[in-house]
Design a protein that fits this description.
Order of helices and strands of chain A: EEEEEEEEEEEE
Number of helices of chain A: 0
Low-confidence stretches of chain B: none
Mean pLDDT of chain B: 93
Distance between the termini of chain A: 40 Å
Oligomer: heterodimer
Helix content of chain A: under 10%
Radius of gyration of chain A: 14 Å
Distance between the termini of chain B: 36 Å
Number of helices of chain B: 0
Structural class of chain B: mainly beta
Shape of chain A: globular
Largest sheet of chain B: 7 strands, mixed
Structural class of chain A: mainly beta
Mean pLDDT of chain A: 93
Order of helices and strands of chain B: EEEEEEEEEEE
Number of strands of chain B: 11
Largest sheet of chain A: 6 strands, mixed
Largest interface: A-B, 25 and 26 residues
Strand content of chain A: over 45%
Chain lengths: 115, 113
Amino acid sequence: AQTVTQSQPEMSVQEAETVTLSCTYDTSESDYYLFWYKQPPSRQMILVIRQEAYKQQNATENRFSVNFQKAAKSFSLKISDSQLGDAAMYFCAYRGPNTGNQFYFGTGTSLTVIP
Amino acid sequence: NAGVTQTPKFQVLKTGQSMTLQCAQDMNHNSMYWYRQDPGMGLRLIYYSASEGTTDKGEVPNGYNVSRLNKREFSLRLESAAPSQTSVYFCASRRLAGGGEQFFGPGTRLTVL
């Protein structure tokens, strides 16, 4: 099974600053999808951003962007101009074409935003 | 459009009791999933259903059963609850278009005493 590793259990950032959350994954597949989900204290899982492996361009959604390094199997999330509402648990997830419908999640990074 | 709904939101059981967690989606998605979330372990897949009429085991299926009642509904049953099943349970559905991301329900917090 594919593995997804988030090596930072906790991170903190000053409001308005930039923070990067790390994610690495292990796969032998060449075509796959990567996702970042946000889980605020409400517990609701919210999609932040997704990246298709066949696209070389890094995905961007407003203040959220990724640094996708396919050869290194790395998929980090950058949050710019951090806001108090960004405080949450962030999960990295992988889905590959040959893993059927299964998604593989990392263990999460808890982000604190300091006013 | 309610998305993915789950009932109940909270439940307390005694060891050995049974219960069914209900999940429904109104997005016409084919695939549906059940996860459990435990501290420090992320989300682990219990069962999934790629389409109506099919179900498959995930990473942690022991102690659970599922039913894909129709395209909209996917239930998770605990036949004889154990304290190790204390967790937060999430249902999700997946669209085929685009990146095929999952959409999640609000979760059920289950405590087994």
